[in-house]
């Protein structure tokens, strides 16, 4: 997921950090906002909806190619 986000958004993200946490924790945050939580949302997200959520917040005009279809 990290590589997918870096490939898509490059320097626009600033950084992608992986932070060790307790067993079963998987969360995606952007500027303090929780975009996805394995516990809250059930399971691991697919890259497409996460990329769309991030794009909508950092650069709404940006096209995502096949991820927009």
From TrEMBL:
**Coiled-coil annotated spans:** none
Which Pfam families has this protein been placed in? Rdx (PF10262)
| The keyword NADP belongs to this UniProt entry's keyword annotation | no
InterPro entries tied to this protein: Selenoprotein_Rdx-typ, Thioredoxin-like_sf
Where is the segment annotated Disordered? 38-69
On the tree of life, the source organism's domain of life is Bacteria
Point to the regions of Basic and acidic residues compositional bias.
53-69
Q: Which UniProt keywords apply?
A: Redox-active center
Q: What is this protein called?
A: Selenoprotein W-related protein
């Amino acid at each position: 997921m990290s590589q997918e986000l870096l490939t898509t958004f490059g320097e626009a993200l600033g950084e992608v950090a992986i932070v060790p946490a307790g067993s079963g924790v998987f969360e995606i945050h952007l500027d303090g906002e929780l975009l996805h939580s394995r516990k809250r949302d059930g399971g691991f997200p697919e890259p497409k909806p996460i990329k769309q959520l991030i794009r909508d917040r950092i650069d709404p005009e940006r096209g995502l190619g096949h991820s927009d279809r």
